[in-house]
Amino acid sequence: MTQLNKTHDASLKSWVTSAQALGCDFPIQNLPFGRFQIAAKKDGWRIGIAIGDQILDLRQALSAVAWQADITRMLAPLAAGDLNAHMAESAGNRSAFRAAMSQALSSGSPHESKLAACLVAQSSAQMSVPCRIGDYTDFFTSIHHATSVGKLFRPDNPLLPNYKYVPIGYHGRASSINVSGTNFKRPVGQILPPGQEIPLFVPSRRLDYELELAVYISASNVQGEPIAMKDAEDALFGLGLFNDWSARDVQAWEYQPLGPFLAKSFASTVSPWIVTMEALAPFRVPFTRPADDPQPLPYLTSMANSANGAINMTLEVWLQTGAMAVAGVDAVQLSSSNFADASYWTLAQLVAHHTVNGCNLQVGDMFGSGTQSGAKPEEGGSLLELSKGGKQALVLPNGEQRTFLEDGDSVIFRGYCTSPNHARIGLGEVRATVLPARAI
């Protein structure tokens, strides 16, 4: 697990002045990676590092400075738009690269004048999904979400007996994962309205969001050789925000007996930036279970995981309806939760469990954390929970009501870590707007 170093120093300042702005997601202590091109030029994809409201263009930076040989070697694939190659580097190499970028962007750096010409305003950049995602697995890690949803369908037995022993997950569809800002059409599918025996083929009437984290994998294990808990942290590259859109009515009809299918695969949305696990090191906190709960089986246990396996991170959901957008009214916050409190399993445990049967992960694979809901009713990470299964409408400040999403609604997730002794680290945001369904 990453130790704190000079790159985490709260007193560190950047010559990029916007990195010091109050509430900035991307101070010099963060340095997340994203894949972009300059929107007006369409001049090819490259990897950049977010700093303040700017992007350090690593294609330009490669030739702007006389870097040490090992940094030059690692810059080359990033300049070509290949983040996966950097993800595959050893943890030590990635840490050395981070240290070099931190020094180059720090106040007083001798490279300021050369690298200033390599900055691109985030507002002028076109972003893509940050890396090649080969496979995607969605987990179900929030016990509060699992219990709340379980109560809607199984009031007498909301939490199935395997939940406290097994990190539940299913394999999703990587091809329909899009970057923030990519809007999508309301899905069409089969639903079975209450009291009917024959399903209808219609646009979903119960479209929902799911507040999740995207977990990016940085290790490839040989098939048949699991990743043990002691090595699982090294398989984690970083985190982003993730909206696992869900058609609840389609899901209710199709999910038995094999689980989610078309209710999930129509669209998923990730934030454009990957915040590295090293940047998040100051916010690691102990992983604990209630004393009367079963403790994880030995293959899901380690001293390091117990000491620092969880992450203290605030996650928020915001909504701007179409009417609000037309009126120029900002989005309103619907809920907030904390990842350390919401998740029943740590990220390292997800890696260890995913591979314990011999499954081979690949660099760039992505995990969804599952909907992150807090213990309180108002901390639900989905409308399914906040509206009590559609029975209790949310009343918005402008008088509009929502049980599920309507056409024109824009959903925004935000995530950030704070601590009295460390700089605030943000994940940026992920947003998308629901468009009307296609004609059928």
Could you please describe the fold and organization of this structure?
The structure is a single chain. With 440 residues, the chain is α+β, with helices and mostly antiparallel strands. The protein has 2 domains: 123 residues, SH3 type barrels (Roll); 300 residues, Fumarylacetoacetate hydrolase, domain 2. 22% of the residues lie in helices and 26% in strands. The strands form 7 sheets. Strands 6, 7, 8, 13, 14, 16, 17 and 22 form an 8-stranded mixed β-sheet that branches. Strand 2 and strand 3 form a beta hairpin. Helix 1 packs antiparallel against helix 2. The longest helix has 15 residues.
- Under CATH, the topology of the largest domain is which? Fumarylacetoacetate hydrolase, domain 2
What ranges have pLDDT less than 50 throughout 5 or more consecutive residues? none
Domain module tally = 2
Q: What's the Cα radius of gyration?
A: 22 Å
Q: What's the total number of strands?
A: 26
Q: Compute the number of helices.
A: 14
CATH architecture of the largest domain: Alpha-Beta Complex
User: Helix/strand-derived class?
Assistant: alpha+beta
Shape: globular
**Approximate strand percentage:** 25-35%
CATH class of the largest domain: Alpha Beta
Rounded to the nearest angstrom, the distance between the terminal CA atoms is 52 Å
Query: How helical, in percent, are the residues?
Result: 10-25%
At the fourth CATH level, what is the homologous superfamily of the largest domain? Fumarylacetoacetase-like, C-terminal domain
Biggest pleated-sheet summary: 8 strands, mixed
- pLDDT averaged residue by residue: 97
